[in-house]
Amino acid sequence: RGGVDLAGKRVVVTAGGTREPLDPVRFLGNRSSGRQGVAIASAAQARGAEVVLIAAHLEVEPPEGVELVEVQTALELEEAVTEASRAADIVVMTAAVADYRPAETRDAKIKKSEAGQTLTLELVANPDILAGLASRKRDGQVLVGFAAETEPDPSALIELGRNKLAAKGSDFLVLNQVGWSQGFATESNEVVVLRKGGDIVMEASGSKLSVADRILDVIV
Ligand code: C5P
């Protein structure tokens, strides 16, 4: 691809997995590697966009030349993406954001000697960042969400995606199946893209970079 069809556009991409601290040495996290989000940031940059990458925990290097904002938790990610999206034409929420965080973060290590044989953690819901962005979206801004689901049945997966898209209110939802050996830490991906209303607008599989370009084609 030689085109610069995103020249002059400001694109915000979130990537990676958030980490919610339990104590100074432990966190609740997820297996997102950040590969798909980083691929979208690189592809958007190659197509001429000015890119802000909001990076939760990444297992890959962020691309050079993007504005990098590093965050740990869902609340930090919310603050960063809310700020960056004010001037953005396109916001792509690839990050795997924790739905819950520990109700309290201890100042000292949680000790086995105090907890005994079972330990119950109380969690509280994080805000749904994507739904919040959608409710404040400007005219002309394009908002893209992701949904990583373990549902094995393809038609049930699409149904889940349609419900999620409606609940979040984004313009597009990129749906992919994840599992123990699929989706998150892998080099390739297989996605279905739904647009507002629920129609399937694109299906792609291949390297995360090629999938990124196909997703940008849809957005453009
Ligand atoms: O509800 P679920 O976590 O499956 O939704 C996934 C999409 O919503 C992703 O785009 C993710 O970045 C976003 N999300 C969010 N705030 C949360 C949880 C997920 O914006 N608290």
UniProtKB/TrEMBL annotation:
State which pathway it belongs to.
Answer: Cofactor biosynthesis; coenzyme A biosynthesis; CoA from (R)-pantothenate: step 3/5; Cofactor biosynthesis; coenzyme A biosynthesis; CoA from (R)-pantothenate: step 2/5
Q: Per the UniProt record, which EC number(s) apply here? A: 4.1.1.36, 6.3.2.5
UniProt keyword Lyase, yes or no: yes
Which residue ranges does the record assign to the DNA/pantothenate metabolism flavoprotein C-terminal domain? 6-219
- Residues binding CTP, per UniProt: 99, 109, 127-130, 146, 164, 168
Q: Which GO terms describe its molecular function?
A: phosphopantothenate--cysteine ligase activity; phosphopantothenoylcysteine decarboxylase activity
Return the cofactor note field. Binds 1 FMN per subunit.
Recorded catalytic reaction(s): these are: N-[(R)-4-phosphopantothenoyl]-L-cysteine + H(+) = (R)-4'-phosphopantetheine + CO2; (R)-4'-phosphopantothenate + L-cysteine + CTP = N-[(R)-4-phosphopantothenoyl]-L-cysteine + CMP + diphosphate + H(+)
**What keywords sit in the KW lines?**
Decarboxylase, Flavoprotein, FMN, Ligase, Lyase, Magnesium, Metal-binding, Multifunctional enzyme
Cofactor(s) essential for the protein? Mg(2+); FMN
Report if keyword Metal-binding is assigned: yes
Q: Output the superkingdom of the source species.
A: Bacteria
Q: Where is this region: Phosphopantothenate--cysteine ligase?
A: 11-220
- What family does the entry list? In the N-terminal section; belongs to the HFCD (homo-oligomeric flavin containing Cys decarboxylase) superfamily.
Functional description taken from the UniProt entry: Catalyzes two sequential steps in the biosynthesis of coenzyme A. In the first step cysteine is conjugated to 4'-phosphopantothenate to form 4-phosphopantothenoylcysteine. In the second step the latter compound is decarboxylated to form 4'-phosphopantotheine.
What is the name of the protein in this document? Coenzyme A biosynthesis bifunctional protein CoaBC
Give the source species. Answer: Leifsonia williamsii
- What gene name does this entry carry? coaBC
